[in-house]
TrEMBL record:
PANTHER family assigned to the protein according to its UniProt record, in alphabetical order: LMBE FAMILY PROTEIN, N-ACETYLGLUCOSAMINYL-PHOSPHATIDYLINOSITOL DE-N-ACETYLASE-RELATED
Zinc is among the record's keywords: yes
InterPro entries recorded: GlcNAc_PI_deacetylase-related (IPR003737), LmbE-like_dom_sf (IPR024078)
Protein name: PIG-L family deacetylase
Keywords: Zinc
Annotated organism of origin: Streptomyces beihaiensis
Keyword Zinc attributed: yes
């Protein structure tokens, strides 16, 4: 019997291109910069609109900074990091970092963001227990990833969260794909080469976080982390360094 791990690695398909608006929903500042900013740079270059919705401000992410100081600082770093890859709209939902709960409140907040932005493509981060192998994921990523996959449908249903329509947010059933960055089971990919330099700069904008994380020179750290990741996918994408996604069609 062949387990999934032993199957020959299938080639990743190119990401769908027939869309105009995307919304990325993740738990923390830096999730998109670690996960898929090179792909986002490609898309904004092509004239597509991409907005970010962050569930927290990442205020529990730096051991040496108290949350009330850390939250506003990480919000600023996230806004500049987004601007580097052509993203001007960055929203924060103000759930508490580290203890995001999967449930109706989270689904409703994400469904509201989907109705505001009316994306055809939703982007989120790995919702699985691990990053592959034995690298355990965080509960915030799991909750937000799953809730985003669920909210793609919630946003189109008038009756699950009727209070949203009362606030003027009419149902939006137009999400055609949900693309999960950082998944251990990718299906699609985007050529990372045109966007990689901006992806490095956008990750580098999270300077306070990175300086607290590593003694390495921040730029060397960002470039080697992202380069390693995109090269790891090249064998499955015609030798092209790539940002992989697990894509759910709707
Ligand atoms: Zn995170």
């Amino acid at each position: 019997m062949i387990t999934p791990e032993e199957e020959p690695l299938a080639q990743l398909k190119p990401m769908p291109e027939d869309w105009q608006r995307a919304l990325a929903v993740v738990a923390h500042p830096d999730d998109l910069e670690y996960g898929c900013a090179a792909a986002i740079a490609n898309w904004t270059d092509a004239g597509r609109e991409v907005a970010y919705a962050l569930v927290t401000r990442g205020e529990a992410g730096i051991d040496t900074l108290a949350p009330e100081e850390c939250g506003p600082l990480r919000e600023r770093e996230q806004r500049t990091g987004a601007a580097v890859v052509g993203v001007e709209t960055v929203e924060f939902m103000d759930h508490r970092d580290g203890v995001i709960e999967y449930g109706p409140a989270l689904r409703r907040d994400i469904a509201a963001a989907i109705r505001r932005h009316r994306p055809e493509l939703l982007i989120t981060l790995n919702y699985q227990d691990t990053w592959g192998g034995l690298y355990w994921n965080t509960p915030d990523h799991v909750a937000v990833g799953r809730a985003t996959l669920d909210a793609a449908a919630d946003a189109g249903n008038r009756w699950i969260f009727p209070e949203l329509a009362e606030q003027g947010l009419e149902p939006w059933g137009g999400v055609r794909w949900v693309a999960v960055a950082g998944s251990a089971r990718p299906t699609h990919a985007v050529d990372a080469r045109p966007g990689i330099d901006r992806a490095v700069r956008s990750l580098l904008e999270h300077r306070t976080y990175i300086e607290a994380l590593t003694d390495e020179d921040p730029e060397t750290y960002c470039r080697s982390f992202l380069t390693r990741n995109i090269e790891a996918s090249a064998d499955r994408f015609g030798k092209v360094p790539a940002v992989p996604f697990e894509v759910f069609s709707r």
